[in-house]
């Protein structure tokens, strides 16, 4: 089969690799019909190279149809399914508490990490990912989300990651109808975080340096601002001088405006593997401009929800400010199956309340992945969300 593989810093390629096979009785094999490039994939492309091996199949936002089902998978050939990005058992202590990313059955204990993720480095199990023609799905008796056959892929695809991640980001603010929330970063997660908050009746402000991203959010009733102190001042003024009740940081470790941390991150990519891993695990730092903005912006006693991925082990935090402002911070990988029941009716609603029809900016053949990664990383051609279609022929 054809699959998108990691080959080095800012380098992916489409290669012919062995087809996946059933390994356990609760496995399934799906033929991938749509698979998206996530902002988190850009962390592999840019800064997490020390934990990657050339040839790793990447991607964690796939859906498709079952072509082979293990005897204990609860699936049959022909089922249409969306695959959550984490692999969980559904029955352990953590899964039963809605913490599927901490699944005790599947935890990557040799790395000290939680549940494995599709296509996401040695840290998360080195599981072959979903930017491919076919995908082996472990724990298919629990993980896949069965969906109907009437609606197009794009209505369901983002149940794999983007929508649950955005829903959790808003839920973790603890806010209610009428409260105010600011979203820092209007990439895919920020777009839906803003729309979900708006759908739930909140006053929503959003900050992003890219005009096309601001324009997309504005189409959905979000008040948008460019980055900078002036924008923070305007949002604070609009919230009676206090700042919003909560802030969602939808940017993460590669925030703009952090040149020293960027240099430190990138230097690890060019060290020998062992040294690069040690640097990231022990003295790695994130680019924290977005988080610092969130801390500055949120009102005293407010909540910051981190949905952007952070990976540094030595990132400096302004604990004095966090303590003095009495802030609550909640974070973590999205527990996909914990939120799906709330989101599924919205993506199937003909009225499209979350604007799923207005999200994908580029649909490309799987073979065009190298150019798509570069375009997404450089924010070219108005690129906000790319979906790869393995059934299309390369341009």
From TrEMBL:
Its cofactor is Zn(2+). Residues 188-254 form the Alcohol dehydrogenase-like C-terminal domain. This is Threonine dehydrogenase-like Zn-dependent dehydrogenase. The keyword Heme does not apply. Gene3D superfamilies: Medium-chain alcohol dehydrogenases, catalytic domain, NAD(P)-binding Rossmann-like Domain. The keyword Zinc applies. Belongs to the zinc-containing alcohol dehydrogenase family. Keywords: Metal-binding, Oxidoreductase, Zinc. Residues 25-142 form the Alcohol dehydrogenase-like N-terminal domain. The lineage of its organism: Bacteria, Bacillati, Actinomycetota, Actinomycetes, Micrococcales.
